[in-house]
Amino acid sequence: MLGRLRNGCWMLTAAAGSRAGPRAHSSSAASGLLRSQAYIGGRWVEAGDGARFPVQDPTSGRQLAEVADCGPREAREAVRVAYGSWPSWRAATSKERSNLLRKWHDLMIKNKDELARLITAENGKPLQEAFSEILYAASFLEWFSEEARRVYGDVVPTSSPNRRILILKQPIGVASVITPWNFPSAMLTRKVGAALAVGCTVVVKPAEDTPLSALALAELADQAGVPAGVFNVIPSSKSNTPAVGEVLCTDPLVAIISFTGSTATGKILLRHACDTVKKASMELGGNAPFIVFDSADLDLAVAGAVNSKFRNSGQTCVCANRFLVQEGIYDAFVEKMVKAMHRDLLVGSGFDEQTTQGPLINERAVQKVESQVSDAVSRGACIVTGGKRHSFGAMFFEPTLLSNVTTDMLCTQEETFGPLAPVLKFRTEEEAVTIANSTNVGLAGYFYSRDYAQIWRVAEQLEVGIVGVNEGLLSTPEAPFGGIKQSGLGREGSKYGVDDYLEIKYVCFGGL
Ligand code: ADP
Asked: What percent of the chain has pLDDT over 70?
């Protein structure tokens, strides 16, 4: 039930749904694709010192596996092996590379249930979302298996009759790939698919929270026949990660660092990469505005808002982070949004079929949401629903909506990466665009309007790399993914996704 308090806040009396407390799912990680060693040069190997680190189920806190803890030595070895494998891989025909990517894709589809269960076990996202991630991840291998055969150069008209100008596109070399935990499979294939397609070899360092998905993909790459040394995976613990990252960004044999993660980490990697002038592909943080104009279809906007905000419990870099709602429909939006949250969101274990909201990835993530809520409340925001840790388990937070939000609050200035929807009120289109753009990041932005002139104006003015017009879910292999400002460098997926892994060479034919 939603009621209005005297201070102008909306208040909710019934909490969002949940299930009984977390249970350990014993079958979840008992997978035929469960691998715990590093994959270097086509072999499964331990770290040189035999060190391992634990991987935990964020739902129950139970240990799922212990994984080889690679350090700088293994990182250098993996880079050396990838460099050694590069000449033969780049010499393979594009059709040969395409066929191998396609086989890898087919094996992902064949093993989709097992791969999805691994994601849910180590990341906690609901099984249905994990399953969607596997299809999405596999779609990048399919897409880039097709793009592999379309890496065209140019023949350019010249002003000299005795010359011809050719432009070749050639693979850049070894790619260091550092992936995040929120899409442990899809962020890997979106990078590795592109790199392998054009003839680069790769070393992947998966996130310490979710290395099992990357290792399972290595097993399938092996089964697909990807040659030894072309694709290497070196898991490493949180404490080893900075040293491994430094090797991956500074080793002279590496040509490009491709990273998805926080802007803060991206800056560290860019600093490392500058001494050897490496190329960098960076998919960093966002602070996505979600604008609802008076002219919007309100029901469509609410459905899009719930999808955009609460997928993966709010842990995606394109999740709506700030809801800007025009004053004429502000109250109606808040009311409908809260109703939709109660109707559609169920907190629980990702292995329970009806769950839509799993755990956050770790304690730090829960603390961040908690501190943003208390900061907002201390500055005058109202908790309409949620607002605190969820009783289901230590890593769970209640789906939360705040009203009376203002631009000085942390929740509008920082990326939340959690199930928190702060709703601001605005009066004019100009004000909404100004607020939306008043940030140093620019990944995704969304707005809902049925005014065509407004749609053109706002789509052009938003300072982001990805715009959703009357749409809350945008990611697809056919479209370029990436941001402007401090949200990153380069684009992934689409026909542009191979560009970062290619060098352009001008060949001048003279004396003709
Ligand atoms: P989050 O804070 O959400 O975990 P990060 O940017 O820290 O995001 O993590 C994304 C990826 O970056 C993970 O694979 C993580 O291990 C890696 N990472 C974090 N810090 C470093 C670092 N100093 N050098 C290299 N990789 C890093």
From this structure: 94
pLDDT tens for residues 357-403?
A: 999 999 999 999 999 999 999 999 999 999 999 999 999 999 999 99
- For 17, other C-beta atoms within 10 Å of its C-beta total 18
What pLDDT is attached to residue 27? Answer: 39
- Protein residue with its CA nearest to atom 15 in ligand 1: 207
Query: Which segments of 251-358 does DSSP mark as H helices, in order?
Result: 263-274, 298-310, 330-344
- 266 Cα nearest atom in ligand 1: 6
The Cα–Cα gap between 480 and 482 comes to 7
Task: Give CA angle at 388 (384, 394), nearest 5°.
Answer: 150
Which contacts of 270-279 are long-range, i.e. CB under 8 A and separated by 24 or more positions?
272/245, 272/246, 273/249, 275/250, 276/250, 276/251, 276/252, 278/249, 278/254, 279/172, 279/255, 279/500
CA of 207 to the centre of ligand 1 (A): 7
What is the pLDDT at residue 297?
Answer: 98
460 an active-site residue? Answer: no
317: annotated active-site residue: yes
> Would you state the pLDDT for residue 32?
87
Tokens matching residue 64? 């799922």
Which of 233, 258, 263, 265 has most ligand 1 atoms within 8 Å of CB, for mutation? 265
Q: Ligand 1 centre from 496 Cα, in Å? A: 25
Cα 238 to Cα 361: distance, rounded to the nearest angstrom = 14
Instruction: Quote the tokens at residue 128.
Output: 């249905």
**Which residue in 174, 175, 183, 239 sits closest to 206, CA to CA?**
183
